[in-house]
């Protein structure tokens, strides 16, 4: 034990000494804590000690939780376990008398934690439910579809079926890149037991297709489709595809020191969407996401190293697109001065001008609105050890030697070359305008522009009940609200709406391109059923669909 070189031991000893005022006891406790944190061989002896002194049921649960952990998560749990052990040790040594209350705090932490991904096997799709005082609605949450983990849900047979679905997708992910929403189908088919699977009708090449054959085939198709209808009348489904959405959410959570635990199946390297070719934008964002979620630079059976090699071989993260540079700058892995200018002052221009953002395509202006706020603020999250490591991993030269400027995107990301006028405008803003706006008296104008931008952000949030126009500006708006005030009501109203964008299937968790296409899908489904001569047979399906359309 070297208290001068081992930070963990030094901190542990400091706390132990403060509690005990006894050098021998403090050193003993320090050795125990350090052993658990560093997974020392004497760890088993400490477990045995606890097993003897804690109530059997509690200690058994502790040990089963510890033993089931994966390597990437074990360190965090060990930290909390060591704290619980520390309190127990003090109690046994008579240095602590209120062990019951303090130890209960750590027990509650353990039992309130989400299980690790190997035990997260059963999720329930909750339809048209709220569940949070921070949720706002005008139609009693009709059409809302949110996945929630339920540890008590599922028979052994169903859990086995889910694992088989995951394994099948994993083995065929390069052939079939889309999921089949098997988790959702299993649940809804169980909730709609009246729709039996009708026998399939096959017609040989030498046979004629009769009207009866067509009718029976339609009946079979509509019967199956009706079994997937939710109780509020809409047809739930995945609205995924883009690969750059979940990274934004993970960056925002990382800045707030909160993480999304997801079972993601990755292929190197990542494109703009699940069927697209590899891009610097998708690859860098995905790589950084995995690092923030706990993957080491050499983890993933060589996948992380393979991805990093692809990034560096294609010029490094300096060749990422403007959206990527923005996210890296927010995270602290890139400098804001290397971004294309996003001046918030553009929101102060008269609306009559053709370049006013109000005249742009809605998705364009609503994404660049929060981006301009973050750019104007030059906001950077906490510089963690992971961020410092990313500065070394993502670039071909040492971070301090990068010549910061408006870097061009790599050829894989450049779908349409920039017009010369656009490059001249960016260069002028970068070299002439930004230096003025960053200093007095131009800084006064910047402050006014930021105030206007955040007002527009709040207006967008309130009008969409904090769902926003899409997932990109949803995460950015939420981050802007947190930057403005971490304890604000606006930020708290954003939080429960995160779940509206997350979808679970056999390919893992993903962030959707929107919170769903409920009305779109239901309207087409109803029209399709009405266009057949089977309206009477599927009257209940149509009534539920009609009610949903009216309620929404």
Automatic annotation (TrEMBL):
<feature type="domain" description="Squalene cyclase N-terminal">
    <location>
        <begin position="272"/>
        <end position="489"/>
    </location>
</feature>
<dbReference type="InterPro" id="IPR018333">
    <property type="entry name" value="Squalene_cyclase"/>
</dbReference>
<dbReference type="GO" id="GO:0016104">
    <property type="term" value="P:triterpenoid biosynthetic process"/>
</dbReference>
<dbReference type="Pfam" id="PF13249">
    <property type="entry name" value="SQHop_cyclase_N"/>
</dbReference>
<protein>
    <submittedName>
        <fullName>Cycloartenol synthase 1</fullName>
    </submittedName>
</protein>
<dbReference type="InterPro" id="IPR032697">
    <property type="entry name" value="SQ_cyclase_N"/>
</dbReference>
<keyword id="KW-0413">Isomerase</keyword>
<comment type="similarity">
    <text>Belongs to the terpene cyclase/mutase family.</text>
</comment>
<dbReference type="InterPro" id="IPR008930">
    <property type="entry name" value="Terpenoid_cyclase/PrenylTrfase"/>
</dbReference>
<keyword id="KW-0677">Repeat</keyword>
<dbReference type="GO" id="GO:0005811">
    <property type="term" value="C:lipid droplet"/>
</dbReference>
<dbReference type="GO" id="GO:0031559">
    <property type="term" value="F:oxidosqualene cyclase activity"/>
</dbReference>
């Amino acid at each position: 034990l070297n208290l001068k070189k081992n930070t963990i031991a030094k901190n542990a000893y400091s706390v132990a000494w403060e509690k005990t005022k006894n050098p021998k006891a403090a050193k003993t406790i320090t050795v125990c804590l350090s052993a658990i944190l560093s997974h020392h061989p004497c760890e088993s002896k400490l477990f045995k000690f606890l097993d003897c002194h804690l109530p059997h049921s509690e200690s058994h649960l502790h040990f089963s939780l510890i033993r089931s952990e994966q390597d990437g998560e074990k360190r965090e749990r060990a930290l909390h376990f060591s704290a619980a052990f520390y309190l127990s040790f003090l109690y046994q040594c008579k240095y602590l008398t209120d062990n019951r209350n303090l130890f209960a705090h750590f027990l509650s932490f353990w039992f309130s934690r989400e299980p690790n991904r190997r035990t997260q096997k059963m999720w329930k799709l909750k339809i048209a439910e709220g569940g949070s005082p921070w949720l706002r609605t005008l139609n009693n949450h009709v059409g809302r579809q949110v996945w929630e983990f339920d540890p008590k849900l599922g028979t052994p047979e169903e859990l086995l079926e889910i694992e088989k679905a995951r394994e099948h997708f994993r083995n065929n992910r390069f052939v079939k890149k889309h999921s089949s929403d098997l988790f959702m189908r299993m649940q809804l088919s169980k909730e709609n037991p009246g729709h039996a699977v009708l026998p399939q009708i096959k017609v040989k090449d030498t046979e004629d297709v009769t009207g009866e054959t067509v009718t029976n085939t339609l009946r079979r198709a509509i019967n199956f489709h009706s079994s997937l209808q939710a109780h509020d009348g809409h047809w739930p489904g995945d609205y995924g595809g883009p690969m750059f959405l979940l990274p934004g959410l993970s960056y925002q959570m990382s800045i707030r020191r909160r993480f999304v635990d997801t079972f993601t199946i990755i292929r190197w390297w990542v494109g703009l969407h699940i069927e697209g070719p590899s891009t610097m934008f998708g690859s860098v964002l995905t790589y950084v996401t995995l690092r923030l979620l706990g993957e080491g630079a050499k983890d993933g059976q060589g996948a992380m190293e393979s991805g990093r090699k692809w990034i560096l071989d294609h010029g490094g993260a300096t060749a990422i697109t403007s959206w990527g540079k923005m996210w890296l700058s927010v995270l602290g892995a890139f400098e804001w001065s290397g971004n294309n200018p996003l001046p918030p002052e553009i929101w102060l221009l008269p609306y009559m001008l053709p370049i006013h953002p109000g005249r742009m395509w809605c998705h364009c202006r609503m994404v660049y609105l929060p981006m301009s706020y973050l750019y104007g603020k030059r906001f950077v999250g906490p510089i963690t050890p992971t961020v410092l490591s990313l500065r070394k991993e993502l670039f071909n030269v040492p971070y301090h030697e990068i010549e910061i400027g408006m870097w061009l995107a790599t050829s894989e990301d450049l779908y349409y070359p920039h017009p010369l006028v656009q490059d001249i405008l960016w260069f002028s803003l970068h070299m002439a305008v930004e230096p003025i706006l960053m200093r007095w008296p131009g800084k006064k104008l910047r402050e006014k522009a930021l105030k206007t931008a955040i007002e527009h952000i709040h207006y967008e949030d309130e009008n969409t009940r904090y769902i926003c126009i899409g997932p990109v500006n949803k995460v950015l708006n939420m981050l802007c609200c947190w930057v403005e005030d971490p304890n604000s009501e606006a930020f708290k109203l954003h939080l429960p709406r995160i779940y509206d964008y997350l979808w679970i299937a056999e390919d893992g968790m993903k962030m959707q391109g929107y919170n769903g296409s409920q009305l779109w899908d239901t309207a087409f489904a109803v029209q399709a059923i009405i266009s057949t001569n089977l309206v009477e047979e599927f009257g209940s399906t149509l009534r539920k669909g009609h009610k949903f359309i009216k309620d929404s």
